[in-house]
Amino acid sequence: DVHMTQSPSTLSASVGDRVTITCRASQSITSRLAWYRQKPGKAPQLLIHDASSLESGVPLRFRGSGSGTEFTLTISSLQPDDFATYFCQQYRTYPYTFGQGTKLEIK
Amino acid sequence: EVQLVESGGGLIQPGGSLSLSCAASGFIITDNYISWVRQAPGKGLEWVSVVYPSGSTYYADSVKGRFTISRDNSKNTLYLQMNTLRAEDTAMYYCARAMGLTAAFDIWGQGTLVTVSS
Questions:
Q1: Do B111 and A49 make contact, defined as CB atoms within 8 angstroms?
Q2: Mean model confidence pLDDT for chain B
Q3: How far apart, in whole angstroms, are the C-alpha atoms of residue B52 and residue B101?
Q4: What percent of chain B has pLDDT over 90?
Q5: Looking at the partner chain, which of B60, B98, B106 has a beta carbon nearest the beta carbon of A95?
Q6: How confident is the model at residue B11 (pLDDT cuts 50, 70, 90)?
Q7: Which residues of A touch B105 (CB under 8 A)?
Q8: At B101, is the pLDDT very low, low, confident or very high (cuts 50, 70, 90)?
Q9: What are the phi and psi torsion angles at B117 (to 5°)?
Q10: CA B69, CA A31: separation in Å to the nearest integer?
């Protein structure tokens, strides 16, 4: 199985800050990586697919990059709606696997 | 509107069985790859199973031999039959759509909670 490691596990920031979350795969997944945002009590929402493609309707402040085994999600100017938990996911091979999550908290 | 709606969760004793449903609207399930993904309370996400447009099915090792994914094309509905349930199967169960073989989950249901406890 492909193991996905996210860092940090928790991130404290303020509205307007720029933040970056990292995801590493245990083997190459080419660009088959997605980023999701999950608000408490809600289902995950797709933000980025294919490592850097913005899902329709997702604000431009979200940016994904990387390929192979190293990926990043950058949020350029945090909004109140962004304080949530973020997950990366590889869909290169089954079983699809997720990172453990990064909880973005208000400082 | 394109959406998925799960139902069927509840409290079940260890060793018991439960069947979950996932009703799709706004798209045809047989044109897509539909998965079940679960999330234990306060934990991360775990992919459970998928059914292909062809009808092929795949499972995570943790549920293989106990869970069965199926669909009723006439009802545009996906199912997950869960047998020999264990405490570690306690989770919110989501169905999710991927539009291709190697594609992200672009549509998720709201989830249905399964609690396995005596």
A1: no
A2: 97
A3: 8
A4: 96
A5: B60
A6: very high
A7: 34, 36, 44, 46, 89
A8: confident
A9: -160, 150
A10: 28
The torsion region of residue B63 among left (phi > 0), alpha (psi -120 to 50) and beta comes to alpha
**What confidence tens digit (pLDDT) does each residue in A11-44 have?**
999 999 999 999 999 999 999 999 999 999 999 9
| N-term to C-term CA, chain A | 36
Cβ neighbours for B24, distance < 8 A, ≥ 6 positions apart: B3, B4, B34, B76, B77, B78, B97
Q: Which residues of chain A neighbour B47 with C-beta distances below 8 Å?
A: 94-98
Closest chain A CA to residue B47? A96
Segment B70-83, tens digit of pLDDT: 999 999 999 999 99
Cβ of A94 within 8 Å of Cβ of B58? The answer is yes
Q: Which chain A residues have a beta carbon less than 8 Å from that of B110?
A: 42-43
- CA B100, B103, B107, B109 dihedral sign is positive
Report the DSSP beta bridge partners of residue A64: A73
Say whether pLDDT at A57 is over 90. yes
Q: With a cut of 90, say whether residue A77 has pLDDT above it.
A: yes
Strands (E), chain B: 3-7, 10-12, 18-25, 33-39, 45-51, 57-59, 67-72, 77-82, 91-98, 105-108, 112-116
- What pLDDT, on the 0 to 100 scale, is given for residue B102? 83
What's the DSSP call for residue B10?
Answer: E
Å between A78 CA and nearest CA of chain B: 23
